[in-house]
């Protein structure tokens, strides 16, 4: 073993397909199975401890972090629910801003024929040097009209349009400055006076659950007792299971996570659907400034876990699962949309080529299948297999999450 200043060379193996044993005589212990291998050199090095036993690739996470921080992050949140449930107040409380300064509340006459519209507001937030481009997609008019059958169409069309725009930009030539405006999460507000999910709620979530991550929120939970909150959560979960509606599923913790993080993850899973109370008013209670709501009988502290799940929702949405929401949007929902687009493009191209062939052949009924057609057929079959795999993965995730679901008292 030859020793150097900073490391010791333990072994050198040289393989040559023409000459198994090199003239140096090093590595003569090769077996006959390696005769046909290409020329390779493997050097096993054990570095001595000291100042020079550092290669440098351990800084890769820091490089990725600096690049990501410099580029900034995008997150799009859609809020869906009828007027008066505190959607704007919750958004202002979550992100400590005021996105609805010039909001106009429609009167009863305007709500009779009011249709669901989409309003998009964007704000730049910076925290400890990290920049976030936050986009809030509001849906005023949802559930306000007498006939709410088509309330889901506007929301579904907006989500599809953002997928389509991203697919177009991704397929273009200049992809360096792409903006991700896809909807990463949909907060669906359920009124506290409902005994379970209503027909309009089920229809809306049934149309969206394969396109976006749905997080169910029970609004104005301070109007319910602890027993009523628990009972409503149970009924919502039963309705979702009965109608096979898949809301956002929390990922399982890695085995190497610390116990505190695992406990926090268990509490977040048990709290869903989140019963929240929101407020953008700061009150002084016992010498402390808190966000709360003043009532004749006392004050509700929105950040008190005994009063509301607001803190759990904020932790999940911003601190712990924001990146996972984006990953699920990219890996599951967008990939489903992308596979459908590619399949439709392939089928349209095949129909056009078949039409041209029929026109060129005239009365001849024979159709010649070219190599290009065979490749397209193979691609279509591959896309169908990918869709089946994604469906199976979603079912497995849903089945595994059912085993770990539990509910705690609020």
From TrEMBL:
Pfam families, per the entry: Septin
Entry keyword set: Cell cycle, Cell division, Coiled coil, Cytoplasm, GTP-binding, Nucleotide-binding
Gene3D superfamilies, per database record: P-loop containing nucleotide triphosphate hydrolases
Cellular compartments annotated: Cytoplasm
GO annotations of cellular component type: cytoplasm
Molecular-function GO term, any one: GTP binding
Coiled-coil residues: 376-403
CDD domains: CDC_Septin
Domain of life: Eukaryota
Domain Septin-type G per the UniProt entry, residue ranges: 71-344
PANTHER family noted in UniProt: SEPTIN (PTHR18884)
Protein name: Septin
Organism: Spodoptera litura
């Amino acid at each position: 073993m030859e020793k150097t200043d900073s490391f010791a060379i333990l072994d050198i193996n040289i393989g040559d397909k023409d000459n198994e044993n090199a003239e140096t005589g090093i590595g003569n212990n090769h077996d006959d199975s390696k005769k046909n291998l290409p020329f390779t050199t493997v050097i096993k090095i054990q570095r001595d401890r000291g100042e020079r036993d550092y290669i440098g690739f351990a800084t890769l996470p820091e490089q990725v972090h600096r690049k990501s921080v410099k580029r900034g992050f995008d997150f799009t949140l859609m809020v869906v629910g009828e007027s008066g449930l505190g959607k704007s107040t919750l958004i202002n409380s979550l992100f400590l801003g005021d996105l609805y300064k010039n909001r106009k509340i429609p009167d009863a006459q305007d709500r009779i024929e009011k249709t669901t519209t989409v309003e998009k507001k964007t704000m730049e937030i910076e925290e400890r040097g990290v920049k976030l481009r936050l986009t809030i997609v509001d849906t005023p008019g949802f559930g306000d009209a007498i006939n709410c059958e088509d309330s889901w169409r506007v929301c579904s069309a907006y989500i599809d349009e953002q997928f389509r725009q991203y697919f177009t930009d991704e397929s273009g030539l200049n992809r360096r400055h792409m903006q991700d405006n896809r909807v990463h999460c949909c907060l669906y507000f359920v009124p506290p006076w409902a005994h379970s999910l209503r027909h309009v709620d089920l229809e809306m979530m049934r149309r969206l659950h394969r396109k976006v991550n749905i997080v169910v929120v029970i609004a104005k939970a301070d109007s319910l007792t602890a027993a009523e909150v628990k009972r409503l959560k149970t009924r919502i979960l039963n309705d979702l299971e009965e109608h096979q509606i898949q809301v956002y599923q929390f990922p399982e913790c890695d085995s190497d996570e610390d116990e505190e993080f695992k406990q926090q993850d268990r509490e977040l899973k048990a709290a869903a659907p989140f019963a929240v109370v929101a407020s953008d008013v700061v009150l002084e209670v016992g010498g402390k400034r808190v966000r709360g709501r003043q009532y004749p009988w006392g004050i509700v502290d929105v950040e008190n876990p005994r009063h509301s799940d607001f803190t759990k929702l904020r932790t999940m949405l911003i601190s712990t699962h924001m990146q996972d929401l984006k990953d699920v949007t990219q890996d599951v929902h967008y990939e489903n949309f992308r596979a459908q687009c590619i399949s439709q493009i392939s089928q349209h191209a095949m129909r056009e080529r078949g039409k041209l062939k029929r026109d060129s052949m005239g009365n001849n009924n024979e159709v010649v299948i070219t190599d290009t057609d065979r490749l397209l057929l193979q691609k279509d079959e591959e896309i169908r297999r990918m869709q089946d795999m994604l469906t199976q993965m979603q079912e497995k995730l849903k089945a595994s999450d059912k085993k770990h679901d539990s509910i705690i008292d609020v």
